Amino acid sequence: MNHLRLIIKREYLTKVRNKSFILMTFLTPFIMIGLFLFVGYLSSVNNDTVRTIYVLDETRYVSEAFKTNDYTIYNHLSEIDLETAKTLANQENAYGLLHIPNMPIESVSGLIKFYSEESASLSLISSLESKIESKLSELKLQSEGVNLALIEASKMVVNINQESFEGVKTSKVGSIMKLIFGGAAGYLLFMFIIIYGNMIMRSVIEEKTSRIIEVIISSVKPIQLMLGKIIGTSLAGITQVVTWIVLGAILLFAASAIFGVDLSQSSQQDMVNEALSSPESTDKIQMIINEFNTLPIGNLIVAFILFFIGGYLLYSSLYAAIGAAVDNETDTQQFMIPILIPLILAIYVGVFTLIEDPHGTVSTVFSYIPFTSPVVMLMRIPFGVPLWQQITSLIILILTFMFILWFAAKIYRVGILMYGKKPTYKELFKWLKY
Amino acid sequence: MNTLLETKDVSKYFGEFQALNAVSIQVPKHSIFGLLGPNGAGKTTLIRIINQITMPDTGSVLLDGEALQPHHVQYIGYLPEERGLYKSMKVGEQALYLAQLKGLSYSEAKKRLKYWFDKLEIGHWWDKKIEELSKGMAQKIQFVVTVLHQPKLLIFDEPFSGFDPINANLIKDEILQLRAEGATVIFSTHRMESVEELCDHIALIHESKKILDGKLNDIKRDYKTNSFEVGLLSDNMEALQQTIEEKFKVSPANFKSLHDDLKLNISLGSQGTSNDLLGFLTSQAQVLHFKELIPSASDIFIQTIQNSNS
Description:
The structure holds two protein chains of two kinds. Helices cover about 70% and strands about 5% of the residues of chain A. By secondary structure, chain A is mainly alpha-helical. In chain A, helix 7 runs antiparallel to helix 16 (about 375-380), helix 9 (about 220-260) crosses helix 17 and helix 14 runs parallel beside helix 16 (about 375-380). The longest helix of chain A has about 40 residues, at about 170-210. Chain B folds into two domains: about 5-220, P-loop containing nucleotide triphosphate hydrolases (Rossmann fold), CATH 3.40.50; about 225-295, Alpha-Beta Plaits (2-Layer Sandwich). Chain B has ten helices and 14 strands. Chains A and B meet through helix 1 and helix 8 of A and helix 2 and helix 4 of B.
């Protein structure tokens, strides 16, 4: 095992000292935060422009629906004809002119026009439309003698409270949260596998292109070498991700200290605050908190760590096997797709079947198959999965990882005898028998 | 026990192709053992089996009388034909890493590396990356790494390829020195002049079979044909040639001399000794040149393979 430690150390140090690795590690947070600030800046620029809209309401009863706010100023015109209003709006550099002709409520709806220099933004038009629609239907109801207060009072909101036979409370919000959790875990795994799996593959290929492989495997067993590479590269990956998080947090903190006003007073913040203050959403927040408390947090954290590691090791051993089979990176393409398919499948299965039935046959089966279990099982666990199922799935996962590692080592051993030949699947299978 | 390494009926298939067919060799202790054979004969496969890179299908390998086991790798130093080092790693770091993989402690490895680097006057390369060195320089590092853990058995596959004559000589001297210090060397090559110079035992592998092995001198004795190369001076060359041709089997010889002498290869077969021939020749002419024809390793190589092909 002393050898394994040496290999891990070498792999780790080689990765961490690599110039492009260092560059990526320190540059990525700057780029991300920079992008974040840039987008924030752009949206604040967008929100700063105040639009002036002229409203010529000949009916006189729709216009009260338009009230000036922070982003739009409504200028109500009266006692002038349309042509004059148009000229005026144009002269004053208004964003546009809304014209509601003098017609009965029943027939006015098709005749309303909006004049502007450039074609108006979609969101503005639909907001005007909805304002007019609700005002008109209100007026219509009133004219039919309906009491508006009664209609307001008759509006009902239904939220079915779910509870299992054992008395565990759950809800739609909770299900969505669970899906998001599972999806995020799956996505994280996916990204990690793609970035660092590739790194492992390249490091395996490197030994073949530099021709050092024969010296190395006359000293250590290929399986030790593979394991060492996988662990060493993964540790480098963890180092990188942790650096990103720490550096990102520091930068975000620094950025908000410098551009503090921009960040805290953005319009999104306002919206959130507004939403929080309304009584309905307080209920929702309370519900999310309740849901969160019912989640099997301890189980989730442990399962996340174990399945994440297991899934990552499994896929990285596949990458190592590919690296062992080929001579250079261009030959790896044909083997790439079969690796990515089960991963993508896992996320699809996870998202689509879990909504239908988290414990249905499809999701249960896929949470046992080692290539999909890390993602699917992580998505199922928030809905409550018996411990024995989790353990069985984990054991299958680890056994498969060990098998693939053995397989990769076997290919590695034979692969060195075959320089310059692009292997086919058939040949790979034959190599196993050597 | 005078045998360090022994392979017993080692066979190896790659799919349908048989790479080795019941190959048995004995490598005596402290010998330099030449593993010879044309390209694709199976030499490298045999070497890889000895290094436990591949496993034999049948047969066994004994090192110092013990069946080969994983821990034996530390007693073997292997310089493969396809060689290289991590390009972006520093020389010193890399040598330390490889030495530790062979079981040396960090401090011991460092001490020995310093000794070797001083000896070969390459100490100033320590902090350079391999990619900054020339191919020959990298080969030197590789040689040091191969011998650093003082293995009992050294295996060199085409060790001189890629070295200039000066460095090739340097390495040759080091190999001889290592043998003198007690190492046993297996040496696979096509370069017959280095076999002649270095090897005392050889085995010849052809089409996955061993077709010849033994002490180089014994083999040469077996292969010599009791023939002699002579240069003669006489007033009447034609008469002289005729007299000799009547008595012996003769063919023209080719060697350099200062005189315009008659150059012949005379094969005695089983009729008499060198003294008999010399006695006869001195009675006929002035003998300027007399040399027993000893087959070179190259001659033996070519002849054996041609015989086995026909």
